[in-house]
Structures are given as structure tokens and as C-alpha cells.
Amino acid sequence: MALTVLAVVAPASAAAAPIPDGPRGEASDFSGAPFDSRPLRSPAPPRHPFMARNDRSNLHQDAYQSDTSRGLGPLGHGMRQTSTLKTADCGSVTFDSRGRIVTVCVGFLRPTLVVMDPNSLATIEEMPLPLRQPSPNPFQDFTGGGYFYLDNRDRAVLATTDRRILVVAGARDVQASYDIRGAVPSGDGVISTLPDWSGRLWFATKGGVVGWVDPRTGAVRSRALGAPIGNSFAVDEENGVYIVTDKALYRFEATPGGIDTVWREGYANDGQKKPGQTQRGSGTTPTLFGPGLVAITDNADPIRVVVMRRGRSTGGRSRTVCATPVFSKGASSDDQSLIAVNRSLIAENNYGYTGPPSVQSGRTTQPGLERVDVRRGLRRCPKIWRSEERAPSVVPKVSLDGGLVYTYTKPPGRSDDPWYLTALDFRNGRTVWKQLAGYGLGHNNNYAPVTIGPDNGTAYVGALGGLIALRDATPPRLPRRPRLKVKARCGNRRVRGRLAGIDEPLVLRARIAVRKRKRTDRSSPFRIRWKLRRTPRRVRVRIVARLRDGRLPRRTKTVRCRR
User: Fold this and answer.
1) How would you classify the pairing of strands 397-399 and 68-69?
2) What is the CATH number of domain 485-560?
3) Residues in the chain with pLDDT < 50?
4) For residue 546, what is the DSSP state?
5) Where do the CATH 2.40.128.630 domains begin and end in the chain?
6) Category of 67 on φ-ψ map: left (φ > 0), alpha (ψ -120 to 50) or beta
7) Terminal-to-terminal C-alpha distance of the chain
8) Cβ atoms 281, 228 nearer than 8 A
9) CA dist., res. 443 & res. 445, Å (int)
10) Which CATH number describes the domain made up of 30-69+139-436?
11) What is the 3-state composition of the chain as percent helix, strand, coil, each rounded to the nearest 5?
């Protein structure tokens, strides 16, 4: 297995030309009202030691594929649109440690690795990648760089159409190249590559081959699963690798000699390639969340959100926790990863999207988006809300600090074909606002995601024309005075107190004091329960909270004790 070091010369920074609009109609640029941020509590996926920081490392944000970001997305204050014309879909958007965009723009002929300025979208440098292979539907072919990740050294790691895995610094220097042609047969293509927690480079192909490369030696191990793979995969801190084929969901782990199938679990599949899906099976990248859970959608009719236990053993319980139907019979499909916020999952309906012509000239897809919650005890997974918004093919995202779901919608019956960045309230599914992104074919995202930028107030959307940025005129900030308060009560020689308020999800830890007693709570809920030697008349509970932005707000409350 050869490892080579190459150098590629890229052009100097080039100014961004905007994506041209189709014939403009009378669509309102903005509808709805600005949103007052309401943070959400959700455990952060562990930071992967070989990937860029969470929220910035790959199409689905982190190794768990949660599709959530900690920062603030746009809240709807005087929004502005910027775009860059690439005549290619700049789907996976990541950010290096300098805040620059690193993306792969997939055109008809070839994908291109591009580094951009995050504000102007001007190209800083770019590197053409190998030509695309012939495909019956190039709009549904994600091989050759559609999925890639940014590593912990700001390098793009991607699979190419000539069956190599490249490690590229910026868009100039190919620092390593791993030949996997011995594992991937001619005519097959690598969908995605991700590292496990030990640094092995795992890959999955559309033909159903899964394998890994040892980056120290270049050694390759692989096996064929006998069923196609249509999407990316997830990895966890126990070196588990979760891959879904058209037949089953797997957990794999590496062994010195190859690949161990820790478990395999089938799911319901009617065998149909539903309009909106790219294969005859689950359309989702596995999502890891909660207390040892993994979720996908199946391929029943209607499709179902399926939650499984991801541990090596289930302790005698069923691997499948629940399977909740979403959307309508005969009109449901999903080709995105589920969003995971704490124990909540959000699914998006893509039924009807088969490529750009399916949403041209006023046509669009079936609605909507639905939230499913996994109840404590893992006994039920009820539906919480449904939105009737129509999102043909975008990968939606959630801003945890803002409390908004961001999707990309196209209303029916509009011959001018407007596309909107649309914000939903996570708590109830209500449409908060819509911002026009543009008209016509060039603004169709074609399976690209919404990506929330590291600078508060910006959302990026890849489109057939290139990349679109939609941002608040003034970047939103977390409240100057955090909305926090102390709730406390005292009686029968016992004191109880806790930190509460809308902004409590922004707290990393809290130091709580009652008289001379102190304790530090490092996870929510931040609370105390102490027994006193005697019941005083009054007692004061003091809390110093550390927020994610470094601030240390102090809150106190004095309460009268019941004797």
C-alpha cells in the first residue's frame, strides 16, 4: 500500500460572483418575525481526538452525526444573502481553526476541494479532484468527496473517484494518499470516510464494502456486506462504527486481522426506492444519542423512526427500543440523518424529490417535518409535533443556543421557484420566519445541508450554483444579562436549591453555596439538597455559573425556612 506526498498549486484568492437568480417573482424576501433565543439542553457528543472540533468537522457536525450546533444561527434580524457561483454543489461545509470554510464543490465533471473566506465567500485556494465516474443519476451520486471530514490538524480527509483516500492541508498539499483499489472493485465508489477513536480511517462504498486503513502503515482491511450503502456512518468513543445498508444496521469494530461484526439488526423494508431516496433501504446516516442509543429511519410504508440500543450487549432486552411511523402512507421518505437533541429526534420528509426537474416550474415535494421523543425508561417514542413545511432534500440542523430548527423549503404552486431558509421553533414546530435565498435552479440545494457558522448569526446552504450564506445584519449575541435565577426552599432542617431560567442550558458548571457548605455541579440539573443541624429563620443560596462563553454570572436567593 503506497503512501505518497504531493504538492498542488492553486490559484490566488478570487472574488465571489453571485449565483444568478431565475426570473424573479413577487415573493416576500422575509416573512414572520425575529426570534428571541431559547437555548436547548442536550449533552455534547464527545470530542473526537482525530477530527476537528464538534460543529465543524463534517456534513453532520460531529462524530455522532447529531446535526446540532452549539452556536447561534440567524435569528431573523434584517437578514442578508451572499452567494458564490461555482456551478457545483458545495455540500459538506466545515471550518478550520482560522474560521475559513473548507468544502468540496461537486460539479458534473469533477469535485473540487475549496477553501473560502466565510464572509465574502471568495475563493482562497482550490484543488481539482479526480473526474466523476458515469452515473445513471449524477444528482444522487455522493461518491468522490460528497462526504469528507476535517481532521484535528485542519486537513481535509476524503475519498476520490479513483479509489484513494487523500489527506490534504488547505487545498494545496496532499500530505498522504492511501490506495484502496485492492479493497474497492472497479465500478464501485466510496461514499464516506471517518476515523474511529484509535485513528483508523474507515470507509464505506455504495456497493456495500466496508473497510479501514491504518494510517501508520497503509495496511487495508475490508469485507463485503452483500447489500448497498447509501449514506455516511457514525463512530463512537468505544471504537464502534455504525453503518446502515439496504438490509440492516451494523455495529463494527476493528480487530488486528480485520473487522468484527459486534451486532447486526435488520429493519422493515418494503424493497421500494421511494421518490426522494437514493437507495432501496434506509435513507439515513445513523445518529448516536442519549444513553447508548442509535437511530435511523427504516423503509416501511410509511417510514418509521427506529431507535436501537447500541451497546455490545442488550442484557437480554430487545435491541430495538421503538419504531414510530412518520408522515403519511404512500407519501413518506427520508434521505437525511435524523437530528438528535437530548432524547428528541427530528425527521424530514423528502418524498417526491428525484432530482432538480421534480421541483421545477412550481412543483415541490410532500410535507413535512416531525419530532419524535424517546421517553425515559425507553418504553415509548411518541410524536410531539408535525410541521407542514416542504423541504425537498436539505439536511436540516438545530442551533442549541438559539432553539431553532433550520431547514430549506420550497412552497408549491410558485412558477418562479423561490427557495427559503426556514426557521422552526424546536419546542412546538411552529414556523418562526422564512428568508428568501433565491429563485430557480441555481438555488436548489440538491441534498446539501444547512450549516451553522462559527460566527453567530450565519447559516450556509450548498446549492447547485455553489454556496449561499444567509445572515443577520447584526450578529446575534447571547443575552448580556443571562436569564438565570435560583429556586430554593427550606423546611424541616432541609435546604433545596437549583439553578433555573431560560439560559440554564448554556451553563457548563455551577458552584453552589449554602452558608459554609459548597459544592460544584458539572451537569444539569444544577441543584443541592442539604440537611442542616437546626432550622434557621432564613437561608441564602448562592450560585456562580460558568457559561460556555466564559462568563461567570452570580445569582442568590434568600428564603424563609418553615419550622
Assistant:
1) parallel
2) 2.60.40.10
3) 1-12
4) E
5) 30-69+139-436
6) left
7) 78
8) yes
9) 6
10) 2.40.128.630
11) 0, 45, 55
